Amino acid sequence: MLIDRTRKGLIKVREKPEMLKRISLLISEYLTAFYAYNSLIKDKNYYLKPVHMVVRRMPDGSTVKYYYYGRYWYSIQKTSGPSRIKWVYRGRSKPDPSLPDPPANPIEGLVVKQFDDYVELVFPNEDLFRRIYDKLVQH
C-alpha cells in the first residue's frame, strides 16, 4: 500500500489487484436497492447506474480500466435501428424532479484505476477515505 495526498485534496492509494474484488463485494451489498429503484422508474424511461466503467488504451499498448462510483443517469430512447434502444447520458444529478430520490451510493466519488499489476484508488476527500478504506481492509 502506498498513499499519496495531492494538493487538490485527493487521496491516492496503490493496492494489489485483489482490492478490486473487495470493492465489488462492498458495492454488491447495495446493488439490490439500485435494481429496485430502476424497476420503480423504468416507466419514465430513466436508468440509474451506480458504477461507470471506461477502458483506455495507453500509447504503449496496455489498457487501463477506470471505475467511477456514483450516480450516473441515463434515459432510454426507442429507435428504429438494429439495436432498437439508445442510451443517452443525462448527468450526475436527478434529471426529473418528479422522480423519487435514489438510493445512496456509499462509495460515491471513488475512482479506481486498474492497471496490469496494481490498482489505484482515488478518494475525493479524507472522509470517504476513512469510511471506505477501513471497510475494504477489514474484508
Outline the fold blueprint:
Layout: E1 2-5, E2 11-15, H1 19-41, E3 46-57, E4 63-78, E5 85-91, E6 111-114, E7 119-123, H2 126-138
Antiparallel strand pairs: 1-2, 2-7, 3-4, 4-5, 4-6, 6-7
Molecular structure report:
By secondary structure, the chain is an alpha+beta fold. It has helices spanning 19-41, 126-138; strands at 2-5, 11-15, 46-57, 63-78, 85-91, 111-114, 119-123. Strands 1, 2, 3, 4, 5, 6 and 7 form a seven-stranded antiparallel beta sheet that branches. Strand 6 (111-114) and strand 7 form a beta hairpin. The radius of gyration is 17 Å and the shape is globular. The model has no long low-confidence stretch (mean pLDDT 89).
Short description:
With 139 residues, this protein is of the alpha+beta class.
Provide tags for this entry.
2 helices; 7 strands; 26% helix
